[in-house]
Amino acid sequence: MKGILLAIIAGALFACYQLAVKLSATHIQEMLGAVVLQAVAVVVGVFIFLILKDGQEPLVYTSTGLKFAIIAGIFVSLAEIVAFYAFSQAIPASVGITLIVGVNILVGLGLDYFWFKSNLSYTQLLGILLILAGVILISWKR
């Protein structure tokens, strides 16, 4: 249950992040906005790390963990840059955020299925089709 609650909080924080990118994207050059966002993320991350790190416990990591953390950092940085450029094009928040989150879900489920060989039930497949339909309907030109 704790993992689900944390995932819900993370989802809410990502939504707030997307809205903040949308609000700033037309008031700042896209690359500058992305750099400021990433610099603030580093400061906040280091600050929280220093607060939460217990001096009694050694830092535990593997080369695989570091490699995938670096890869994740590259992808999130690229996603932030692309999001600034997308939102600077006057795309409505309701469309942009929905597309980003919808595609995120679809790609995430696809990677989970093919990379981790997860099984998908008929209910989950129906959910994927509904998400895909929603993404298409949201982005459809009126």
Description:
The chain has helices at residues 2-25, 30-52, 63-87, 93-115, 122-139. It is built from five helices and no strands. The chain has 142 residues and is mainly α. Helix 2 (30-52) runs antiparallel to helix 3 (63-87).
Which secondary-structure class do the elements indicate? mainly alpha
Unreliable parts: none
Note the run of SSEs as H and E.
HHHHH
Strand content: under 5%
Large-scale geometry:
globular
- Terminal Cα span: 41 Å
Report the mean per-residue pLDDT as an integer: 89
Radius of gyration: 18 Å
The major beta sheet can be summarized as: none
What level of helicity do the residues show? Answer: over 70%
In terms of topology, how is this protein built?
Blueprint: H1 2-25, H2 30-52, H3 63-87, H4 93-115, H5 122-139
